[in-house]
Structure formats: C-alpha cells, structure tokens
Amino acid sequence: MMSSSTRPTTLGALKSAGYQPRSVKDEVRANLLRKLRCKETLFPGIVGYEDTVVPRIVNALLARQNFILLGLRGQAKSRILRQLVDLLDEEMPILAGSEVNDDPLRPISKYSRMLIEEEGDAAPIAWVSRDARFVEKLATPDVTIADIIGDVDPIRAARGGHVLADELTIHYGMLPRANRGIFAVNELPDLAGKIQVGLFNVMQEGDVQIKGYPVRLALDVLMVFTANPEDYTARGKIITPLKDRIGAEVMTHYPEDVETGTEITRQEAWLEREGRPIEVPDFIAETIERVAFLAREDKRVDQRSGVSQRMPITVLESAVSNAERRALLCDEPAVVPRVGDLYAALPSITGKLELEYEGELVGADKIARELIAEAASETWEARGGEMATARLEEVVEYFDHGGVLQISDTSGANAALEGFRTVPGLVDAVREVGLEKDDSPGTTAAACELVLEALVAERRLSRSDAGSYGRAPRRPPGGGMSKPTFEV
User: Fold this and answer.
1) Total domains in the fold of the chain
2) CA distance linking residue 230 with residue 212, whole number of Å
3) Rounded Cα–Cα distance for residues 281 and 106 (Å)
4) What tens digit of pLDDT does each residue of 81-108 get?
5) Alpha-carbon span 147 to 112, nearest angstrom
6) Could you tell me what percent of the chain has a pLDDT over 90?
C-alpha cells in the first residue's frame, strides 16, 4: 500500500508508477495465494468449517468463480461473505468522480471516457479502500431493477441538457457501483424473476437495459450469494440460466459436534461485562449447546427451517444475565449460571423454534423444558455420571419417600447448597464425578442442579415450573414416611 504522500494523483503519474490493471477475481486469487503461502487464517472467527466449507470456497476463488453458500439460518454465511473483503487490495485507484469505480486505464462509463479525452494524463485519480468495494443486498420481493442495475434520472437529464437515452442520465444501481469489487446478495431466491434475469445478463453478456435503452457495461465483479437449500432448489424460486452461471455451490452446516458448537457459542456470546466476574462452568455451557443439538433432531421442530446457532448464543447470554441478577440480589462475588437459569432463558429458546403441527399441539414452552432436562441428562452421562450410580439411588430414594426440594432461581449459591446437602448422596455424586471446582459454592450448586435435572429427564424425579423437585408421578416403592419440603 502506498502512503498518502506517494500515491499518484493523476493518470500520468499512475502510468509512470507502473500500474497495471487486473480483474477483481485475479486480485482476489493473488491475495488468496499469498495468504495460503503464509499460512494465514482465511476466515477469522469461523469455527468448524476448516475441513468442509473453507476448502470449497478457496477452490472456487482460485478458479475465479462466482459462488453461492447454501445453508440454513445461523450458519455464518453472511459473515463469510463479508470477510471476503480481506482478500482485496487495501486500496484501489479509480478515476476521480466515477460512480462505477472506473479503472483509469480501462474506463467503462461515458463520464470517465470523456474525462480522459478532456484532461488526458492530467485526469485526477482517487483511491478507494477495500471496505468501500463490498456491496451487500438482502433480497426481498420488492427489490427493483432500478435498485440493482439503475434507472434514468430525469432531473440529471434536465440539468445536463441530455436526452433520456444518453448514458450520462443514468443513476446507477448497486451492481454497477460494485464494479471492481464484490457484490453479495443474501437470500437469492427471494429476488423476483426479472431481477434474476438482469443479474444473468450482467454475468453472461455484460449488458443491461434501462427503461428500454441498451447499455453496455463490462462490469468486473465477483458475485457471491447465499440461500436456503430448500428455497434454492424449489421450482420457480430461481431461474435456471442464473443457477447454471454460478460456478460453485458450497453447502454450510451447523457444528458437527458439541465441542465445536460450545466453542462458537462462547466466542459469540456477550460475556465481557462490567461488574462481577462471570464464571460459566463447562458443563453448563455444554448443556446449553446440547439443547440446540437436541432441537435439531426433534421431530416436533421444523428441520427445514433449522435451529440457528444464535439460539445457544442468546440462551447463554440470558442465563448469565439471570445469574448476574441473582449475584446482585445475594451480593455474591461471582456470576455463576446454573441449570435453573436455563429455564429463565426460555424466551431465548421458544422464540427460535419453528414447530411442526405435532409441536404446535404440545407447545414451544413444554418442548423447550423437555429439551433442557434431556440436555442436562446427556451432559451428566458424558461427564461420567455412571460412576455415581449408587449415589443417585440415594437421591431418588429420598424423593421417593416424600422429600421435596424447592430451589428458587434467586437463591444464592450458599443457600442452594444448604438445600442440596439435605438430599442424601447428591453432593457426593457431584464429587465422585469431579464436577466440583476448588470447592466453589457456585459451581457445586450448578453441578447439583445438573444431577437433579438429569434425573428429571429420566423420569425418576419431577420438577415443577417453580423449580420444585419431588418424586416422579408414580407410587413410591415400599411407601415410607413423608419428609418435609426444603425451600430456598
């Protein structure tokens, strides 16, 4: 990158500096090869795509192809497209005043050609940053040809004394203004058919028609798209000629394992807050992630819509917020979320579940509660819960004989632990599995709730909406005397 004091400011100076034009796809290819040689991270912050999505994108770019990312919501498609900006040069010269980023040595607009005829080598040069060379449009049914390609501007025609057929009367749309850059369209199938035809014409022939006037624009654009796979392949959603001209179709996906999903969620969730330190136990973060994984397999959830990765991110943020509120009320030194806080985060789950008919009959709230309990059970098993089988029998026996435990989500860690210790075997089970951390009351309390939720999922205990744990809805074996309720 040239410094501002040494950058050529005229066409003649640019020629003297040895400037040579190259297409944007060649530019992206060259910068991509450099990054590969230097082993640089191509898409920082994108986790889980290293061996699947990224290699296919790299291949498409090395082949100088336009491409489309196909995937359900919340799979980082838009973020990937925006990071393509890093593959552009830091700055690019254009003829000053050009609306379409005209290359000084290969101008395509009438304005720039006239400027060179009048000024010659004295024609002024401007420099455009890489960020200004990325144009993004969300496709909606109301998008018009004027938005994408352009339209005749009667006011410009009147002020300049031009006839309407003159190219100088055109107000260029987003695509021409993305010349020598990247043009991204999100949700491509939502574009009307005539708009897709316009894109096809630009990609194939480099010409457009504005108000019936043919305009030849040899645009130099890397075109990239996103779409939902179902919309993309449905009849009538996308015109076949445009689909045929897209060089590569790259499928994105949700995290393939819980560990990768947890890493993404921790990375994206807002946890750097002022005030008390936030300590999220690993098993709580894992439980939150398993809620999303279970939802993606639940037949009551519409899998065609998908369960966005934003769901566990917002659940973690909401759970931490509830724990933060509790820490303030109880004046605790640290913010430690536990399973009960996931129930406080139900709005972050139900609002992101698209249900099938069967799911609508059950209700999003009930499904979300079942997912939380089942996720806790899977986490407990994955953490070695079978090692504490004998202790769990003690816990179940306590409740089978009438014991009840009421834990409010505003109960502090020490108060909650006092209640958990009244249940024989509960704290011992946590210790045997090794979920305690430096005798932290917050972590121990969170681990005890995990055990109870796992037993709820196995239908060995019941849990009320108010957070009361009791025996499962069945006759306790052997009867026994009723035990008092312990409320915290």
Assistant:
1) 2
2) 35
3) 59
4) 999 999 999 999 999 999 899 999 999 8
5) 22
6) 66
What are 29-68's pLDDT values in tens digits? 999 999 999 999 999 999 999 999 999 999 999 999 999 9
Question: How do beta strands 67-70 and 248-251 pair?
Answer: parallel
Is residue 188 located within the same domain as residue 314? no
CB 175 within 8 A of CB 216: no
**Facing residues of 251 across strands?**
70
161 in Cβ contact with 112 (< 8 Å): no
Q: What is the pLDDT of residue 66?
A: 94
For residue 88, being part of any structural domain is answered with yes
Helix (H), strand (E) at residue 13: helix 11-16
pLDDT per position as a tens digit, 323-363: 999 999 999 999 999 999 999 999 999 999 999 999 999 99
Same domain, 198 and 267: no
Is 4 part of a structural domain of the chain? no
**DSSP characters over 98-139:** -TT--BTTB--SHHHHHHHHHHGGG-BEEEEEGGGGEEEEE-
Is 486 a residue whose pLDDT tops 50? no
Q: Is the pLDDT of residue 487 over 90?
A: no
Q: Where are the beta strands (DSSP E) in 330-479?
A: 404-406, 461-463, 468-471
Query: Which residues does 106 contact at the CB level (< 8 Å), separation at least 6?
Result: 21
Enter the tokens of residue 324: 């933060």
- Alpha helices for 234-363 (secondary structure H): 240-245, 258-268, 282-295, 310-330, 339-344, 346-350, 357-362
Which DSSP category does 173 fall into? -
Strand partners, 462: 470
Q: Which residues are registered as beta bridge partners of 209?
A: 214
Say which CATH number the domain at 240 has.
3.40.50.300
Question: Domain range spanning residue 292?
Answer: 258-487
The one-letter amino acid at 241: P
Pairing of β 150-152 and β 67-70: unpaired
For residues 212 and 307, state if they share a domain. Answer: no
pLDDT of 181 above 60: yes
pLDDT over threshold 50, residue 401: yes
Q: Report the helix count and the strand count for the chain, using DSSP H and E.
A: 22, 15
Do 124 and 180 share a domain, yes or no? yes
Cβ partners under 8 Å of residue 1, min gap 6: 89, 90, 91
Residue 198 near residue 211, CB atoms below 8 Å: no
DSSP 328: H
Distances (CA, A) of 472 to 163, 299, 371, 429, 477: 83, 25, 18, 20, 11
- Of the residues 251, 270, 299, which one is the last residue of a structural domain? 251
